[in-house]
């Protein structure tokens, strides 16, 4: 680890991912859009000074502001550019040699009467080599000239951003006869002189001329594609312009996926309070632990002085108190949250951009599927969607989603559409599982609701505090939380219809179906009435939970994308439990679900439906259009999978314990990946071990899975303490939780006010 200045890495080192994607060493580069570039450079004056190579960089830079610009005008003269809408001025000044003329122009900016440019990009050498036929005298003169210019550039660097662009290598075999004297050996000598002389008088000063040396590395990989052996291909100079934009704009715009040149965000008031709380928890736990150990030593067995025999202790080791369990859980959680913060908020570990290839997605998928098959065991029960089977389903889906995220496969539309089905399948299980519980148990008590809400939201609430992120940022948890409350409200409101009541009178089944139809009507209305939806979730304090970037549009989009699948899960549970009650399905070990003929027909239809959906999803051309159809058709593949998995008795009787293990911690895996496996809030990849991508993934994955498993245990331990079964104690805890969230809202309002 060399320090936190990622700007230095961005300007000097990196590698290509594939052919055109440049990856800076240790940090992530944002791809600026025209609107973003204009917002960053508003009221700015930028100057490019140099030869034809600098002119190339100038054109690539202004195309980031206005893509319609054409490379026209006098090639050996000054070229102005102005964007009046944003008051941006960008000038190219033709000074192909480092000489007295260039010095005079630069000196004019150091004088008080002339307005200084905000960004100055300088570089030249190849003309000096060409005109003087590569003579040593020309190199000596170049050193003298750059020595006279260096103090002026250093003076400008105190108030402006000054970049010296080193000379790119040439492809000597392609050079014309008039340029044969421009050799890479000569270019290296000129670059060496520039690096040695620049900043020589300001080694310890913060105001330095920034040496733009990364262009050399890019040229080494791409100069062979040059049209004349001297000038870079368009893709390479565009990369250089994007690097230049990142160096200047990242600290202003602060893009999530642009970690290069971004300072570490300051700690908020809530983060400081969380740090104090976890520190006190750790200290408190160790104090209590020391007291208990000391008491245990005093009660330890001692030697009977008369017989010389060892006596058993009169008092056994003390039971773990509620306070000690609480402090122990917060102690572990505090250490884990420190790791979260260091990974994704402090500039300690490196971050890199994702880069998708088919092999980076499909090879790990095949690997984990093979592993899953090796860990096949018999289920304890053979019912449809039994506990082991649903854990297995969650597990393999979560692993596929994790691989999808780390490989950046969202750029490949067929994969994206299939992953959307997996997310829908999670919500389908939410509808199926909660409906089944309320229908069979008839338990609508506060304890059950609090238990579910705590287990779903505990980790996300802690991360919102520690990582300074809004609740809606972890969109899946708000989604399942709201759907759980909708399921609860649908079944709990009068009249409460449960299986026990419906068995006494079949008319209650129609009453439940009527409730489900009302729910479907409400879903349909809200999905096509964005205004009504936004009004509901824009009321304070709901708005604090569901707003992202100042509005609830993202929440509406996420909710709308899988709006029907929870209803489908509830309806499936109702039909399945009704068939089971009337013994219309056979769930014995090894038995097909229906008669052989019906089972074979349903199995054939399911396989055809499954493949048909996959063919449709793979042929998608437009993401928006496919997303519009997705809510209505995703259930086809989900139901097809359930039937394929459950109709044959031998398939229903086995499960993969490997996938089921991951399924038990699937929620923690989904949330933890945001910060300790991926980076920059899922936009990049965390790099613990630079230079060894595969080894890095293995190490970060091992830590990530262990942390998710530990958090799952902490959540379960705390759920027993925070949500007790005793109603009076539970009411007191709920009042404490309400007070905690009231304080959180107050501190959040104070933070927002200080930011504005």
Automatic annotation (TrEMBL):
Domain called Cas1p 10 TM acyl transferase: residue spans: 253-734
EC number(s) reported in the record: 2.3.1.45
GO molecular function list: N-acetylneuraminate 9-O-acetyltransferase activity
Topology in membrane: Multi-pass membrane protein
UniProt keyword annotations, A-Z: Acyltransferase, Glycoprotein, Golgi apparatus, Membrane, Transferase, Transmembrane, Transmembrane helix
Residue span(s) of domain NXPE C-terminal: 22-92
Domain of life: Eukaryota
GO cellular component: Golgi membrane
Catalytic EC class: transferase
InterPro entries listed in its UniProt record: Cas1_AcylTrans_dom, NXPE4_C
Reactions catalysed: CMP-N-acetyl-beta-neuraminate + acetyl-CoA = CMP-N-acetyl-9-O-acetyl-beta-neuraminate + CoA; CMP-N-acetyl-beta-neuraminate + acetyl-CoA = CMP-N-acetyl-7-O-acetyl-beta-neuraminate + CoA; a ganglioside GD3 (d18:1(4E)) + acetyl-CoA = a ganglioside Ac-O-7-GD3(d18:1(4E)) + CoA
Pfam families the UniProt entry points to: Cas1_AcylT, NXPE4_C
A GO BP entry: carbohydrate metabolic process
Cell compartments where the protein resides: Golgi apparatus membrane
Transmembrane portions of the chain: 269-291, 355-375, 395-416, 446-466, 473-495, 507-526, 561-579, 599-617, 629-647, 659-680, 692-711, 731-750
Similarity annotation: Belongs to the PC-esterase family. CASD1 subfamily.
Protein's UniProt name: N-acetylneuraminate (7)9-O-acetyltransferase
